Amino acid sequence: MKVAYILNTYPSPSQSFIRREMRALERRGVTVKRFAMRPFDGDLPDPSDREEKRATEYVLAKGMAAMVFAVFVMGLRGPVRIYKALFLALQASRNSEAGLFKHLIYFFEAAYVARRIEELRIDRMHAHFGTNSATVAMLVSEISGKPFSFTVHGPEEFDKPAAIALPLKLRKADFAVAISSFGRSQLCRLVEYRYWPRIKVVHCGIEPHHYESARPMPSTRPIQLVNIGRFVEQKGQLILIEAMALVTKRGVDARLVLVGDGPMRLPLERAIARSGLGDRITLTGWLDEAGVRREIEASHALALPSFAEGLPMVVMEAMVTGRPAIATWIAGVPELVQDGRTGWLVPAGNPEELAEAITQLATCADDKLRRMGSTARARVLMRHNIDIEAAKLAEHFAQRPRTQPS
Question: Where do the Glycosyltransferase subfamily 4-like N-terminal domain residues begin and end (predicted)?
């Protein structure tokens, strides 16, 4: 089977889960061709991401002439399909935040990809995220007659389903994937009951062969926490700074490492300075996978104070390393983190509750922390093995398509 993955910006440091999924499919004998609209414009510290960049075909880099030519070629081969795809682009643009002009660009991008998948004899398309990559995949399907599917992660797609025409995409897709049961429930809200069987759950996953053993938790104190992710409002790092200030006032000796970068970096740096926590909190910037793993192994727990999430990969990476998590009780997180068994769950946006969880962690007996870490590791290995999850996805790909563009 040959599958085209259609992505928007790829690869980026926060998208290792896509790379793992594609490579797991390839280990199963599925041929995966990578198409992305544009490359990530920042640094790629991980060598695997640089390899992915070399393996990816970038559509916008081909230029407008190539896309216009593709519209002409595909129009000659299937004039009805090309007009239907154009109409579908116009339909998707209604009430869309992207607007008509961008949807016309998506139409031209789709024509180019449709021409390429014909040349490469690709069987079907799959997109990650329900935003513009899924729009392009839907239009490619309309032009080519090949089925498409897409994975929805959240939370952005759930915040604005009408603005990204998500119900339309769910109806047009051969099937859609949610990464958690919570995510599936949110997609079921958007379409009629008869479409619900098309909405599948396939988890993101870790590669167990990279985690054959877990390094013992640090036996020394102070307690060290690690937070990993983009510095954006929804990740809630500013609340974590508040919680660190509260536990420090209580006399709890704790340290925090923030791994990542983003538009909230300057506000975070200012909050750290205001709180007088410069000697307790370190910002590393983006790290490669080995660097992330080193920071997790040097910690006693992961802290994830997010306001909105899908099902975070960093929680899986921490848990498989034998570290419990302090996370917010939102979205799909409680499907992974079990309060009192594999970590602590706290209300989102509440620095006092977060500080209390950090205090409990700091006063927790070492043997109990180790048991929580071992339980966390076993749970991730059972639920989030990427080879098992990719096998589920490959099985869905292999089914006779339920929908075909007319």
Answer: 60-208
